[in-house]
Specification:
With 293 residues, the chain is mainly α. 79% of the residues lie in helices and 0% in strands.
């Protein structure tokens, strides 16, 4: 499971570079719409090959709701926010999702109560994320709130999956929520975006990576991990994604990487370790206090 989570974080982290390059070829929301349409087409082919049945009416309504929250609104909120605040702040606010999901899980998912160590790990991770992104606050108040709302809708979608869709086929869920989300993105783009698309071989490469790897495959893996792990443990690990994005930007886009960013990365990794190894951390604390007596 840890290997799958690491793979997911690398794929989504590097996708920050791909999206930045892809936005030079397409209007941002349209690029997201193409990305998720391609992912849905690939997954529909997979469901046909694996003979996965169509979802029932009860599941389908939740699939569509998750698609509108996790795919449509999530991506629109990010793209609008990026027009007014920097990418680092947008990433941090978006990936504060583990805090919201952990709080929701504490109250609505039996057996997923927050502990002091888990709470501390989440807070350390988010503080580290702020440092890693080297945040510069601007004058817009509504733009950060909009970016933060993307984290809330992602958390709500994950909560719905944990509460209402446990036991459903993760490929089926990802396929239909992605298709519903792509429709919403196309409607928004056709209504409000007026930029031109510049098709080329590299533009196609960006779409293939984002659509097949970072959408179809990655979201199936995320749904599977979420179905098998505690919400807090699964979500806190996603803090590694913008860290990978930062390192990828440094390596491939020659973006700046300073000592504050490196300290932030260390704190993120510490926070992830604390949440995922809460029992081990508790044992070490007890052992240390015993030796000090």
């Amino acid at each position: 499971m840890n290997g799958m989570m690491l793979f997911l974080c690398i794929v989504w982290g590097f996708n920050f570079v791909i999206m930045k390059l892809g936005n030079d070829a397409f209007p941002p929301v349209l690029f997201a719409a193409y990305r998720f349409l391609l992912g849905a087409i690939v997954l529909f082919g997979l469901t046909w090959f694996k003979k996965i049945p169509l979802p029932g009416k009860r599941e389908l309504k939740w699939f569509i709701l998750c698609g509108l929250l996790q795919t449509t609104y999530f991506n629109i909120a990010i793209q609008i926010s990026l027009n007014y605040i920097n990418a680092g702040l947008t990433s941090v606010l978006t990936y504060s999702m583990p805090l919201f999901l952990s709080l929701l899980a504490h109250y609505f998912i039996p057996g997923e109560k927050l502990t002091v160590i888990k709470t501390g790990g989440i807070l350390i991770g988010i503080i580290g994320l702020f440092l890693a992104m080297d945040i510069q606050f601007g004058g817009n108040i509504w733009a950060p709130i909009l970016a933060l709302s993307s984290a809330v809708t992602w958390a709500l979608s994950s909560l719905i999956f944990k509460r209402k869709l446990q036991g459903c086929d993760t490929i089926q869920f990802t396929t239909w929520q992605m298709a519903a989300g792509a429709i919403g993105l196309f409607l928004y783009s056709f209504s409000f975006e007026h930029g031109e698309s510049h098709w080329s071989l590299m533009a196609l490469v960006y779409l293939l990576y984002s659509g097949i790897l970072a959408s179809a495959l990655a979201f199936v893996i995320w749904s599977y991990i979420l179905s098998k792990m505690e919400a807090s443990k699964a979500s806190i690990s996603l803090l590694i994604v913008p860290v990978v994005g930062t390192l990828s930007g440094f390596i491939f886009l020659k973006e700046e990487l300073n000592s504050i960013t490196l300290i932030g990365i260390i704190l993120v990794l510490l926070g992830v370790w604390l949440v995922n190894n809460a029992d081990s951390a508790r044992f070490l604390i007890r052992k240390s206090s015993t030796l000090n007596r």
